[in-house]
Amino acid sequence: MKSSISLKYFTAEGCNVCKVLLPKIQHLINEKFSNLSLEVIDTRQNPIIAADNQVFTIPVLIIYFESKEYQRFVRVFSLEDVKQKLERLVSLSEQE
């Protein structure tokens, strides 16, 4: 069953914070939320997608719920905050 929750991670080559954070986000998704999809978008290769999502700095992680933006994490954020938001959303989506 396809989840109503998805994530987009915006990054770019040369962003050291992005490089460090991406494997941690991927690990979190794979370990705790394996039914969710994570799309990784390079803002330099896909500037139109970045602009359409109003991404002007990196890294950015956007959580979507039922195709609508639910939460946006920009530049400095903790994985614990991401985990808590995802746990809440998963709980809500399971109640439906």
Layout of strands and helices, then pairs:
Blueprint: E1 5-11, H1 16-32, E2 37-42, H2 47-52, E3 60-65, E4 68-74, H3 79-95
Parallel strand pairs: 1-2
Antiparallel strand pairs: 1-3, 3-4
Description:
This protein is 42% helix and 27% strand. The radius of gyration is 13 Å and the shape is globular. With 96 residues, it is α+β, with helices and mostly antiparallel strands. A 4-stranded mixed β-sheet has the order 2-1-3-4. It contains 3 helices and 4 strands; from the N terminus they run E-H-E-H-E-E-H. It has one domain (5-95): Glutaredoxin, CATH 3.40.30.10.
Distance between the termini: 14 Å
**Order of helix and strand elements from N to C terminus:** EHEHEEH
Give the CATH superfamily. Answer: Glutaredoxin
- The coarse silhouette is globular
Based on CA atoms alone, the radius of gyration comes out at 13 Å
CATH architecture: 3-Layer(aba) Sandwich
- For this structure, the quaternary state is single chain
The percent range for helix content is 40-55%
- Assess the beta-strand content as a share of residues: 25-35%
Average pLDDT metric: 94
Number of distinct beta strands: 4
Unreliable stretches = none
How many separate structural domains?
1
> Main sheet, how many strands, which sense, barrel?
4 strands, mixed
Q: What characteristics describe this protein?
A:
about 100 residues, alpha+beta, 3 helices, 4 strands
Give a brief outline of the structure:
By secondary structure, this protein is an alpha+beta fold. The protein has 3 helices and 4 strands, in the order βαβαββα.
